[in-house]
Amino acid sequence: MLEKIDLNKSIDHKEYTDKLETLSKQLSVLQRECLSRQIPIMVVFEGWGASGKGDLINNLIHSLDPRGFKVFSIDIETEEDKKRPYLCRFWNKIPAKGQIAIFDRSWYRRILSDRMDGISDKKKVQNAYDEILNFEDMLIKDGMLIIKFFLHISKHEQKKRLHKLEEHKETAWRVTKADWKHNKNYEEYLAINNEMLEKTDMAEAPWSIVEATDLQYAEIKVLSTVVERMETELTKDVVASRKVDNYHRKLGWIPSEELFHNSTLDSVDLSLSIEKEEYRNKLEVLQEKIAILQNKVYLLQIPIVIVFEGWDAAGKGGTIKRLTECLDPRGYEVIPIAAPNDIEKEHHYMWRFYNKLPKASQIAIYDRSWYGRVLVERVEELIRDEEWKRAYSEINQLEKQLTNAGTIVMKFWLHIDKEEQGKRFKERQENPEKQWKITEEDWRNRAKWDEYEKAVDEMLIRTSTTYAPWTIVEANSKNYARIKLLETVMNVIEKYIENLKK
Fold first, then answer.
1. Where do the Polyphosphate kinase-2-related domain residues begin and end (predicted)?
2. To 5 degrees, how large is the angle CA 276–CA 335–CA 345?
3. What sign for the dihedral angle of Cα 297, 495, 412, 473?
4. What single DSSP character describes residue 339?
5. Are 451 and 418 in contact (CB under 8 A)?
6. Do residues 223 and 289 share a domain?
7. For 203, which DSSP code?
8. Which of 185, 209, 234 finishes a domain?
C-alpha cells in the first residue's frame, strides 16, 4: 500500500493560502453543526517519526473552538496502565457527544511497537487487531465518527528531518533511539505499517494516507479530509438504524429462535436447600479458603471480575456480604450499578464500565452490571431495539478483552420464582427495618415478569461463553445460594491458579 504512494506531491504557496482560508472557515462551521447534532469525533494521527504529526495537529486545531476538543499525546504504557486491559486507557479518552478527541498516536501504538520489536507472536497480533477492530466498530455503531491519518515520508526524508531536529538542543530531545532504529530498518518497518493499514482499514473508518514530504500539502489534505468526512456524517439520518453485528454469526453459530421459546430457567430446580448446621459449617470453611486464595491472587497479580445479576429480592446483597466478609478490604471493591447519570449518557454505554475495571491483583464485585443494557433498558424500552441487540456482541467483546488480559470473569444469575419474590416483597413491606429495600420500581418490574424472563433467557444464551460462562444460582433458599456461589468462586480461582502452573 505505502510503496505505491507518490511522496513528491506538493502545493504552491498561493493555492495553499487560498485553500487554507476556505477550509478553516468550513471546519469552524462544521464543528458547530456536529456539536448541535451531538456527533462525537475521534481524529487519529499515526505515521513515521518526524513525519509532522505535531505540526499537523497544531494546524488542525487552529480552526476549532478550543472548548470543543481535547488533544491526547499517547506515550508508552505506564505500570498502572499495564494492570488493566490495553484498551481501557483509550475508553477513558473517548469524547462525549458533540466533542472532538484528537490523538497524537493512538491504540495502534502498542501493536506497532511490539511488531517492530518482534515481541508479539501471531496469535497475540491477531487478537490485538481483532480488539482494535471491535473497539472502532462498537463506537461507530453508536454514532462516533472516526478519522484516521497515516503520515508517510521516505527513508531519506525521515533521516534528513531527524538530523535537523538533533542540530538544535531545543528539539534534540524529540529524537529517540527508536526513531533511528526505525530509519535504519525502514524497509522492515514499512512492511509492518503496511500490515497494520491493511488489517484495520474499515469502510466506516478508512485510513487516509497523507503524503507528508511537503507539510503544506499534507496540511491541506488533512483539513480537506476532515471537512469531507464531517460533511458526509452530517448528511446521515441520525436516527437511522445501523447494521446489527451478530457475534454468533462470526463464530459460525447462530442461536436458533427455538431456543428462546423454551425458557432456560424452567429447568432450574428451585427446591434445592441446605440445613442450617451444614450451612454454617460450610460457610466458615469456604470463607477461610477464599481468604487464602485472595492472598494468592494478589501475589500472582490476577484481576477478578464477579458479576451479580438476578431478580429483585433474589438475595444479591446478602450473598455479596457473605463473600466479602472473608476478604481483605484493600483488595476488593463492590461496585453498585444504577441508571447512568447525565455525563455517562453522553458517552457509549460501555464507557462507564471500562472506567471501573479492576487492575491486576484486585477483585471487582458488580452489584448489577453492563447486562442492564439487555435487561431493564430492553424491557422498559429505554433504547432502540438495534441498540440492545447489538449489545450482546459488545458485552462478549468486553469480556473477551478481559480474559485475554488475564482476568478471571465470573457471572452469576440469582434465580427465584415469582411466588418467592412476592413473599419477599411482602416481608420487606411489613418490616420497618427493610422497607427501604422495596420501591415502586420493584413492583413495576414484577408486573413485567414474563418480559424480563424472556430477556434473561436470551441474555444467558447469547452471552454465556467458554471464557465467561454464566452460573445460574438456585436462590429460593438464600443459604443454599450463598454456599453454591462461594463454592463456585473458590473452584474457579483454584482451577485458574492450577492452570497457571502448567
1. 11-235, 274-495
2. 140
3. negative
4. S
5. no
6. no
7. S
8. 234
Cα torsion 173, 174, 178, 182: sign? negative
Residues 167 and 291 in one domain: no
453-473, pLDDT tens digit by residue?
Answer: 999 999 999 999 999 999 999
Tell me the C-alpha distance between 21 and 27, whole Å: 10
The reply to whether 292 and 435 lie within a common domain is: yes
- Reference 236, options 149, 148, 141, 133; nearest CA is 141
Q: Is residue 248 assigned to a domain?
A: no
Whole-angstrom Cα distance, residue 165 to residue 470? 56
200 and 318 housed in the same domain: no
Is-contact 354 305, C-beta < 8 A?
no
What Cα–Cα distance (Å) separates residue 198 from each residue in 1, 103, 111? 8, 20, 14
Count CB neighbours of 355 within 10 A: 12
294 shares a domain with 195:
no
Report yes or no: 412 and 310 within 8 Å, Cβ to Cβ: yes
User: How large is the angle between the packed helices 186-199 and 177-184, nearest 10 degrees?
Assistant: 90
The pLDDT assigned to 262 comes to 62
CATH number at residue 357: 3.40.50.300
Say what the pTM is. 0.91
Helix (H) or strand (E) holding 366: strand 363-367
Which residues form the domain of 402? 275-500
Q: Is the pLDDT of residue 251 over 50?
A: no
